[in-house]
Design brief:
Blueprint lengths: L6 H14 L5 H14 L2 H7 L10 H13 L1 H11 L7 H24 L8
Helix pairs in contact: 4-6
Length: 122
């Protein structure tokens, strides 16, 4: 039996397990694939003046991606229509994104607090 005592690691595992249950793991896969696609669209990046954040192994980064996607929803819908993206997220996916994005804002705050140098756990 392996026990993990680090609080940030425990939180990471909880978030990972929860995300695997969203659309039978498809939610995360779609978000990742879509963000990779958007990060190489130079004309879109220049037109928007911003670039989709890079997905890393941290859930805080994933939350940043969701936030960026929601902020740029209208422009991204135009991009999807013009490019006729087959892999574009579904309407249901966008509803779920809008629903869980605030949770990732709270997760980011929690990760920041539990990784502070002056944290005291009693």
């Amino acid at each position: 039996m392996l026990q993990i005592w680090c609080v940030p690691h425990q939180l990471d595992i909880v978030v990972k397990n929860a995300m695997q249950d969203v659309l039978d793991q498809a939610f995360y896969k779609v978000a990742h694939a879509y963000s990779v696609h958007l990060r190489v669209q130079q004309n879109l990046i220049m037109d928007m003046g911003s670039k989709c954040p890079k997905n890393t192994t941290r859930w805080v980064a994933f939350g940043s991606i969701l936030h960026w996607l929601l902020q740029n929803y209208r422009r991204l819908m135009i991009h999807n229509a013009v490019k006729r993206l087959v892999q574009a997220p579904s309407e249901m996916w966008w509803v779920i994104t809008a629903t869980i994005s605030p949770l990732f804002d709270r997760i980011a705050i929690t990760f920041t607090k539990i990784q502070a140098c002056n944290i005291v756990i009693s």
